[in-house]
Structures are given as structure tokens and as C-alpha cells.
Amino acid sequence: xxxxxxxxxxxxxxxxxxxxxxxxxQERLANGGPLAALAARLVPPGARVLVAGPHDPALLDQLTxxxxxxxxxxxxDAVALAHRAxxxxxxxxxxxxxxxxxxxxxxxxxxxxxxxxxxxxxxxxAVLARLVAAVRPGGALLLRLDNPxxxxxxxxxxxxxxxxxDSAWAIGGVLDRAHPANRDQLRQRLGAVGLRPAAxxxxxxxxxxxxxxxxxxxxxxxxxxxxxxxxxxxxxAGGFTSATVLxxxxxxxxxxxxxxxxxxxxxxxxxxxxxxxxxxxxxxPTVDRNLPVALVQTGRPGIGVLEVLNGPSGWRWGxxxxxxxxxxxxxxxxxxxxxxxxxxxxxxxxxxxxxxxxLLLDAALRRDLAALRALLRGxxxxxxxxADTDGRIAGAAALAGTDNVVVDGERxxxxxxxxxxxAALPGDVVLARGLWRFAAGLLTGGYAHxxxxxxxxxxxxxxxxxxxxxxxxxxxxxxxxxxEAAIAAALHGLGADGTVGLATELHAVAPTDPPVGGxxxxxxxxxxxxxxxxxxxxxxxxxxxxxLLTSRERALRRAETTIGLLSGSLSYRVGRLAITPARLAKRxxxxxxxxxxxxxxxxxxxxx
Length: 608
Prior knowledge:
Blueprint: E1 11-12, H1 33-42, E2 48-52, H2 57-61, E3 67-72, H3 75-81, E4 87-90, E5 102-107, H4 124-133, E6 135-146, H5 151-155, H6 183-192, E7 196-204, E8 212-215, H7 216-221, H8 226-239, H9 249-258, E9 268-274, E10 292-296, E11 305-311, E12 314-320, E13 339-341, E14 354-355, H10 356-365, H11 369-386, E15 392-395, E16 405-408, E17 411-414, E18 419-426, H12 427-444, H13 457-467, H14 474-491, H15 496-507, H16 521-567, H17 570-607
Parallel strand pairs: 1-4, 2-3, 2-5, 3-4, 5-6
Antiparallel strand pairs: 6-9, 7-8, 7-9, 8-10, 10-11, 11-12, 13-18, 14-16, 15-18, 16-17
Protein name: Class I SAM-dependent methyltransferase
Organism: Micromonospora noduli
InterPro entries: SAM-dependent_MTases_sf
């Protein structure tokens, strides 16, 4: 779009605009993702909103109930967003009128991309002070801060200080005292400008396009939450699939959660701070205080952003509808061949407890067979309770693998009940599918475990079934793998050929393979070590077989030599001379007997 086609009455150019630069993010989430959902919740209807810095255009689409002013430094970005905002100010914070205030100021891209390099540089603190001055009494500021020691930097193969791309023309680290480096420093600076921090959300797996926003205080307190465990693992496993990393980010995030450091390890934080209200002004809008504990991007057609709210009776599921969710669902859920997601099921309380997968991994690493047996028997018994009279399991329980089941004491429950099977499955197949998924993750992930290293995935599934008190065989495991392929194909919109190919890949999963999905150098090295160990074992077996064959061949040659020596001796020749006449006489007697029998037989018949 050019300047001539842009609505000129909406764009204000006070000076300092960057004419040949764009800050709009290249990666975007459907409907703006959790960030847009959070902004829509924080902004009251009819409020005046200042969106400072480059944001996903979908975020502005979620603020149609408010009067939005955008503050940008890039003129091309202003042209692109002018149709979505009431007004666009280009040139940095110095271009804001001093007499304008807003109910909510959103700086979810940070403060660095707010000010222009074409004018006088203000610095982080000065930009913050200018935005705070634009917040009216009783209003709020939503501010993003990047974490210089975040998970994204710990797993990146390229050090942050060595980047040379255009987007990294300004890089800050912990040595930059002009920027706060953690949440405590951020709270101090907000307090210095007269703001009161109200809430903070950890952004995962990246700060620019987070797919999960988790309340930092709850992350610190609820380290054993199965919900946080599943959300962090899913967000980090899906957020690094297109890049090779140093180590598994999902494992690192989950470990940080259970160590009470998931908030400190987040790639960034979104902090909500309030400016004290003026009690003499009754018209001051108030920001919604019922803030979410978690906001999660589903990434599925027909489903909006999931939110978790903390009520009097505990955490409860919620669903924030989006524009996409109002349209009819398309593939992969339209066919509902094997599985689908029911959005209506996300309306009840969130089950408490720890994730079963994490408990099983912990017990396997500690070689605690008693704990493994208790957990697996409890899981198998809970599945049996969900079966009908024919032993078949339907609904959410049919897809309840170890990564979607929480354990609270003796109680087992489905964490996310929206995933459902279209048709009921046999109970043994459901159990075998859950155990196979765990066995595949255990072996390909390189986790230490108490079983023989020669077990394949199917064999370990049979062993786990025995611990669970069920006599599974390889045929049942094969049927479970076929069910897993059909379910995964339905959830990802694969056709018939894709389903067959996926089933072939799942059947071929071996302990020496790296985990499915994104690869890390650490996991690839572990897979190489397992392959080397297997090759060493096979080489030793081959050497033993060759040695056995060589010894047998030598014994055979000795026997042939002995026979040859005996065949050429004098005693052997004399024996042959003595035996040969006897053999000839024996043959002659047999021939005479046959002739006599042939002559006497007709005479006997005549006499009869």
C-alpha cells in the first residue's frame, strides 16, 4: 500500500518517522493469539486505547469495541494499519500530544521499537515516563519486557550477541543498565514513575508471538500443576519445530516449572500496572480485575483461545471466541474420522494434580518399579472404570494418554476433556495406545529406565502392560499404533495416503531414533550414542557368529581329514575286500527270493 491509498486523515506525521523501515512481525497467530485475547479482556468497551509500537494487526481487530490510537515509528507500518485504527501517530513518543491521555496503554512489543532513530533518542526510562504520562488516573499500562536469560537464548544455537540480521540492529543484555533485566527491576522502575504492578504473565515459547501466557505468581506457587506442565510442554515442543536447538526446550521448561523457576526462565514477561485512580472522577473506566491464570493458543479450526480463571471453587476452563471460531469448522474436524475437539467441553473446573507422564518419567529415572507399578495399575484401573459392558471406551477417556491425565492422590482424571474419539475403542487398545506413546517418548528421548536396552518400543509397551496388570501382546500393540495413526491423521487433517504413511512411520519408530518433532543437538547426540551402542552390540554378535562358524568349519575339516586318512589305510582296504563278497551274496539272495515268490504265486492261485 502506498501513501496515496492510505487514509491521510488518520495518519499524523509530527516528524521523526522512519520511511524505509518496517517493524510488523512476520510470524503471526490466528486472531492475534493469547496476547490479543488478553488485550481485549483488559480494555473496557468505549475506552480510549494507545497501542504503542508494532503489533500484530489481529490485535487491533480484537479492539473494535474501543477507540484505538497507534503510535509507530515506521511510516509503511502506519499505512498498513491505518484502516484498523482511529488514528496513527508516526515518529515516536515525542509526537504524542501532551494533553492526551488514555484509559489503557499497550506496549506489548516492548519500549525499544517505540522510539524512532530519526529523532532524538530518549532511552528506555524516558520512553516509559512518556507513556506513563499518557495513562489517565485509574488507567493501566500493559508492558512487555524481554528476558536476557530466557529459555529461547539458552537453547539457541546462535549466541544472541553474534546476530547480524536487520532485526537485531539493537541488542540488549544483562550488562545494559538502561534496561531492567528481571521482574524485580521492572517493578522498581514502574514504581518510580508512579505505577502499581497488578499482574505479570510469563510468555512462552517466544515473547514476540507467545502461544501461552501464564501467570508468573501462580507459576512460582503451583510448581506441580499438571495444567502448567502440559501447557509448557506443548508450547515449547511446538514452538521450536522449525529450528535445531541445543537442548530440548520442552524438557527444560518443565524442569524449570518443577524447580519453581518457570517464570524466571520465560523468554519475556507481560506486566500489567495501574495508575492510582482519582477518587473525584467517577467517570474513570475500570479495568477488568478478573485476570486469567493462563491463556493458551489452540491452533485448531473452530476453537478460540483457551483461558483459565481462578474462581472461589478453583481454576475453571473458559473459551474466548474469536472471529475464526464463529465460522463453521473445516478440516480436520469436519470429517471426524477418528477424533475431534468439542469446544463445549471446556466449561468446567480444571482437574488438579500432577501430570501422569511426569510422574512416570520420574519413577523410571529413579528405577522405582514399585511406583511405576502403582501408577500404571491405577491408570489401567481408571480406564477400566470408564469402559462400558462390552469393554469399550468412548469420549474423552478413549484419548486419555499419559500426557493428558492428572493424578491427585488416588484420583485420576482427564486434564483436557475436549479431545474426544468419534467411535468407542476396545479397552486394551486404549491402554496400549497410552503406554505405547509413553514408551516411544521414553526410548527416543534417551531417558534412563530400569529395563533391558534391547527392548524395542512394542516390547517395552508389553512390559509396561504387565506392570499395569494386563497381558498385552504385540498384536494389540500393533492395533493401538494403527489407532494412534488414525487419530493423529484426523487431528492434523491428513488424507488416506497420509494416514497410511503415518502408520508406517509409527510402526518403524525405534529406540535409536531421535524424538519426533524438533531436534536438539543434545537429543541427536544421545540418539547417535544409542545407535553406536546398537552397532557395537551387532558387531559383537556378528563376530561371535563368525567365530562359531569358523570353529564348526575347522571341526568339519578335521573330520574330513580323518575320514580321508582312514580310507587310505591297509586295514580299511582289507575290510572292504572282506565285506564286498558278503554284500554281493546278500544281494543275490534277495534277488532269488523275489524270483521264487514270482513263480510260486500263480500256482497257489490255481490251487485255490
